[in-house]
């Protein structure tokens, strides 16, 4: 059992039909999980967290908070099994109140031995929820990280049209002031670059704007998020044409939406991915009726991990994409009531897990 607990180079065996022989591969799991309202019990005057306090609507007590941490740590420790018995090397997360809740999470008994590091920034989101990255320090070494703001506005076009005939500096200043007041404050995009077992990779962790106000009316904001993602990827590829980039997160859109298909340019089939393009393995799952979130008895895949063309090459001498999955074990599913079959989330009577299932991909490299 020592090799499973401490040695990350877990060897997987599977047949390659081309040569009808078995080869040995090292494996890493890369995952994303929307933790759904991972708040502590303290009232932060700078955020809208009153609901998640002992006197708030959720009656959020220390006991419930620690049960939530225990639940999440159990899930994280198992993502990627059985192919990889080790917990994810890298896991992006969203709906996180602050760094403190992550520090509490990685101290949970089921995660403590993995020695996770944390990369987190406070975002300008009005609810005070952020994205973050957890990584096993032994295998991933960050070299740079930054939070990149998503600048989106309500009625920006209308404001400019109303003022377009007035061009003096005073009017322009008024326009900019009005635009700033109409900014939609949402989550930053978190960019991390580092070395996975000596190989450079970059990760963008996302939680794109919600569908508040309706899917159609809010689509422009998620399309802007997709364009920002594409811009980040382009900048990384200009520095290194072979850059291995993962964009992961709760996109609040499915693989078929314009924000993913057009703004980010993600393709569903490897053969269709152009040089410097992106591949989305979760679109095929969507077409099969699978999902990470349910609403009105309809499933969708908002949680996705999209990768650059550099990760789908057939040469496994370096870490490459193998396959993807949705972690939807039976204990994560509501078993009764109105929401039977949905992800088991928190309620007034039960501390659940999340209203999202986590997603993951495997990276493999041939062992010599």
Question: How would you describe the overall organization of this protein?
Answer:
The chain is α+β, with helices and mostly antiparallel strands. The protein is about 25% helix and about 30% strand. The protein contains nine helices and 18 strands. It has helices at about 1-5, 60-80, 100-105, 110, 155-165, 170-180, 215-240, 260-265, 280-285, and strands at about 10-15, 20-40, 90-95, 115-120, 130-135, 140-150, 150-155, 185, 190-195, 200-205, 245-250, 265, 280, 295, 300, 305-310, 320-325, 360-365. The strands form four sheets. Strands 1, 2, 3, 4, 5, 17 and 18 form a seven-stranded mixed beta sheet that branches. Strands 6-9-10-11-16-13-12 form a seven-stranded mixed beta sheet. The chain has a two-stranded antiparallel sheet with strand order 7-8. Strand 10 (about 200-205), helix 7 and strand 11 (about 245-250) form a beta-alpha-beta unit. Helix 5 packs antiparallel against helix 6 (about 170-180). The longest helix is centred in the middle third of the chain and has 25 residues, at about 215-240. The radius of gyration is 21 Å and the shape is globular. It starts with a helix and ends with a strand. The model is unreliable at about 1-10, about 15-20, about 160-165 and about 170-180 (pLDDT under 50).
Number of beta-strand segments: 18
Largest sheet: 7 strands, mixed
| Residue runs with pLDDT of under 50 for 5 or more positions | 1-8, 13-20, 158-166, 171-178
- What is the strand content? 25-35%
Tally of separate helices: 9
